[in-house]
Amino acid sequence: MNTIKIKAIVLVLLFGMTLYGCSSNNNSSDQQNTKEEHAGHNHEAEKEEDVHNEALHAIKEELAENEILITGKQMKSAGIQLGNITEQQLSDIVKSFGELVLAPSDEATVSALIGGIIKDIHVMEGDYVRKGEIIARIVHPDIVDMQQDYLDARNQNEYLKTEYLRQKRLLEDSVNAQKTVQSARAIFQSNRARKQSLKKKLQLIHINPENLTPENIQDAYTLKAPISGYVAQVEINTGNHITPQQSLFHITANEKAHIDLKVYEKDINKIVPGQRITFTLANNPMEQTLEGEVMKMGKRFDTEQRTAIVHAGIKEIKDNMLPGMSVVAYIQTGGEMHSTLPGAAIVSDEGKNYVFILKREGEVEEKHTGEKIHAHQDEKEHELHSGEEGHSHQHEERYDKHAEEAHAEGRHFYVFEKVQVNTEINQAGFSGFSADIENMDKARFALSNAQAILSEMKKGSSGHGGHAH
Q: Cα–Cα distance between 324 and 40 in angstroms, integer?
C-alpha cells in the first residue's frame, strides 16, 4: 500500500516538472521572438539610414566647389531661415538718443475747484477714460449753499425785473421820480449779475442750473476727465479732505506720444522736417524696428550737452510704448534704394563677403518601403496577441512617430551656392549689397545664421575635397 502511494507522488511531481518546463520554454520563445522583432525593426531603421546617407553622399559628389548640401535636420538645429531680398532706402544716418514724450495738450492734471471730502472714486491707475467721463465725487456744504443762493437769485430776478418795469412806466406817466427808477434798475441788474455768476460756478462743477429746483439740490459735485487717455496717477483715496487746486489725478493720452531726440551740434544742419527715422526702445533693442518722421526742430540749444531737440512723430504706437521711455533712433538724411539682406545673411571669408543662395531642394528617394510597412504590420499583429504588453507597444509607436519625423528631416536636403557680394551701407540691422546674380529679386537666400553654412562648408572641404558631409 505504501509503495503505491509513493509511486503516485512521484508521478505527480514528474507531471508538474513537465508543465513548468513547457511554460519556461514558451516564455523564452516569446522573449526571443520579441528581441528578434526589435532587432529586425532596428535593423530596418539602420538600413534606411544607410540608404539615405548613400543617396546624400551621391548628391554631394556632384556638387560644385562653391556649393554645399545642408539637410533639413541641420537647417532646423542651426535656425537657418530662407527668404528674398528687400528693397530699402538706405542713406547716411544720424544716430541719436531720446525719449517718448507728450505735448502739453495731451496730458492733464485733474484738480478740485472747491475743497471737500472725496466721496467716490470711479477709476484706478491704468484705466482708460474718455473726455467728460465721471472719475470722482466731492462733498462739501458750500456746494449746497451755492445752489440755494442761485435759486434765491433766480427767484428775485423775476420780482426785481417786474418792479423795475413798473417804475419805468410810472416815470413815463410823470407819476414817479427819475431817482426811483434808477434805484430799481440798479437792484435788478445787480441781482441779474449775481444770478449769472452763480450759474457759471455751478456749471464749472458740473451741476446744471437750468434743471435745479429746491427738491433736487445736491450735496456733492462730480470731477470729469478733461481729456481722453489713461489714468497715470491717482493721488487720493476715499475720505480724503482736499483743498482747491490740489492735484488729484493725472491723465495721459499715450496714443499721441511723439519722440524728442537729442541731436549733437555737428549733425543739426543735416536734419530737416519730413526725414524718415527708425527707432527701437532702449529697454528692448531686439524688438522689431519702428518707424517715424521728423516733425520740426526745437529752437533751444543746450550749451552743456551741445545738443538741440528734434521732435519726431511715430507712425504706429504700440501698447508697450509709454511716455518717459528711452529710445535709440536713426535719422535718415537722404539716400537711394538698395537691395538689402539682414546682417546675419552676409558672411566674411578671407577678406571677402558672401551670401548663400538656394539652388535647389528636395528629398532623397525612399526605398524598402514595403519591408518597413510589413514590419509595422507584424508589430500590430503581435500587439493584438500580447495584451499584457500593450503599454510597451504604445510607447514604441510614439517613439517610432518621433523617429519618423526626424527621419523625414534627414531625408530633406537643401543645396546652397556661395556667391561673392559687394557690401554697401549698413543700417538698422540690414546691409545693402550688389552682386552679379541672375533674377536676384526672385532668388531665395539664407537669411539667418549663414555663418553656420560657411562653417559646414569649411568642415567638408578640409577632408573631402570641397564637399560637406
A: 68
What is the spatial distance between Cα 309 and Cα 264, in angstroms, rounded to a whole number? 9
> Parallel, antiparallel, or unpaired: how do β-strands 430-434 and 347-349 relate?
unpaired
From the centroid of its chain, how far is CA 37?
52
Instruction: State which amino acid sits at residue 425.
Output: I
CA-CA distance, 410 to 75, in Å (whole number)? Answer: 10
What is the CB neighbour count within 10 angstroms for residue 195? Answer: 19
Type of residue numbered 113 = L
Cell 500500500, residue? 1
Is 88-102+257-337 in CATH node 1.50.10.10? Answer: no
Q: Output the nine-digit C-alpha cell for 126.
A: 491704468
Beta bridge partners of 13: none
Q: Is the dihedral of CA 373, 378, 379, 384 positive or negative?
A: positive
H-state helical runs in 328-431: 369-384, 390-411
**For 33, phi and psi rounded to 5 degrees?**
-65, -40
Q: How far apart are CA 188 and CA 364, in angstroms?
A: 104
Task: Look up residue 393 and give its amino acid.
Answer: H
d(CA 468, CA 60): 7
Q: Specify the 3-state DSSP secondary structure of 58.
A: helix
Provide the angle, in degrees to the nearest 10, between the axes of the packed helices 369-384 and 2-61.
Answer: 150
Reading the block at residue 418, the C-alpha cell is: 556661395
Fold of the domain spanning 111-251: OB fold (Dihydrolipoamide Acetyltransferase, E2P) (2.40.50)
Domain-wise residue ranges, the chain: 2-80+346-461, 88-102+257-337, 111-251
* Nearest-angstrom CA–CA distance, 143 and 201: 10
Q: Can you tell me the distance from the alpha carbon of 8 to that of 16, in angstroms, rounded to the nearest whole number?
A: 13
What cell does 127 get? Answer: 484705466
From first to last of its 469 residues, the chain has per-residue pLDDT tens of 455 555 555 555 555 555 455 444 555 455 555 445 544 445 555 555 565 677 778 888 888 888 999 888 888 888 999 999 888 777 678 889 999 999 999 999 999 999 999 999 999 999 999 999 999 999 999 999 999 999 999 999 888 988 888 888 887 767 667 888 888 889 999 999 999 999 999 999 999 999 999 999 999 999 999 999 999 999 999 999 999 889 999 999 999 999 999 999 988 988 999 998 989 888 876 566 789 999 999 899 999 999 999 999 999 888 888 999 999 998 988 667 788 888 889 999 988 999 999 998 888 766 544 443 333 434 434 443 444 455 455 545 555 555 565 556 667 899 999 999 998 777 767 888 888 888 888 899 999 999 999 998 888 766 544 444 3
